[in-house]
Amino acid sequence: MIKYLKKGYNEDLLIISGWGFDPYVFDFERLPFNLIVPKEPLLISSISDILHNIKKECFVLGWSYGAHIACDIFDIRPDLIKGLILVSLSISFDKRSIKDTIKKLKKDKIRTLKEFYLFCFKGQKEDYKQFKKHHEKRCMHFWNTADLISALNYLSYHRVNILRIKHIPLLIINGKNDIFESDLQLHRYAKIKIKNLDSGHLPFLKDKFYDEISLFKKGYK
Known about the structure:
Blueprint: E1 2-5, E2 12-16, E3 34-38, H1 47-52, E4 58-63, H2 65-76, E5 81-87, H3 95-107, H4 109-120, H5 125-134, H6 136-142, H7 145-157, E6 170-175, E7 193-197, H8 207-220
Parallel strand pairs: 2-3, 2-4, 4-5, 5-6, 6-7
Antiparallel strand pairs: 1-3
Helix pairs in contact: 3-4, 3-7
């Protein structure tokens, strides 16, 4: 269910990837934690199984779809989370677009995912080339059609309420040029750290992303 990558740190980090992607799109070497990596897509129905296998408090990083799952993990087991990192967070997603994507998935999973990847990398031509070369095939294999549809159905109704997340460090990292609307209206809440990087939907492709993660961890101490 999960793979534990011990790197000699005191703190662990659970990584929850975005829809259609796997956790290995992140640069594991630059994340200053031991890593907890799901071996398959983390769905709302499998949260309890994942939590059962995590034996101590950890940080949680969720990207896009994964940010929604991360918030649900906090709702279920707030005592298990030391800190929360939400990346490319959208409060909600467009139901019509989700419905259309589900129809496409039922006809052709590979084509639908390839179109989605191209959409996510809009304005990042060179990054997209590297993704196709090193990650695309593996990411498509990580998700089956049923899990993709299950995750989309979840996103069609799920909304994130950031203000419910209290008593733990919280960092939100979004890209200024993200193709999804974030709907974040949180600038007046000083306790929530929000960083807007000069990037698109994949801010973890930028060096600054890992700098912010390291600063966040240091601030926790």
